[in-house]
Write a structure and sequence with these properties.
Blueprint lengths: L2 H30 L7 H12 L16 H41 L3 H4 L5
């Protein structure tokens, strides 16, 4: 095992630990502050009503307010579609990179047909 690969494993472990610490800290801090988890839409609505009580929206929502289960399902569907698009894009980029590497290494080493029979 090379030293570079060993370092990359420790970097990955460190990043996972930092992400875990951030998640735990945010949950503990949020629970300690007595705050509820609410979306940005609700917070924006409250701020707008404080700043400009006579504000009227420019348009109405296309769908009525959905129950929590349906809303969570639509959000999960949206996340799945986005993840699929990002994964497809990363796969295309990786395949292109691999094909470029193979074409460069293939051009650097002469093929048997190009050199002809050796020693005959």
């Amino acid at each position: 095992m090379s030293g570079k690969k060993h370092v990359s494993v420790w970097v990955l472990v460190g990043l996972v630990a930092v992400a875990f610490a951030i998640a735990v800290f945010s949950l503990v801090y949020g629970a300690g502050a007595g705050g509820e988890f609410e979306g940005a839409d609700g917070q924006a609505e409250g701020t707008i009503s404080q700043v400009s009580p006579d504000y009227e929206p420019w348009f109405e929502p296309l769908l009525p307010e959905l129950p929590g289960e349906v809303e969570s399902g639509v959000f999960a569907l949206q996340a799945g579609i986005g993840g699929g698009i990002v994964g497809y894009g990363l796969g295309v980029l990786r395949t292109r990179s691999r094909q470029r590497r193979e074409s460069v290494t293939g051009a650097a080493t002469p093929s048997a047909a190009a050199t002809g029979p050796a020693g005959h």
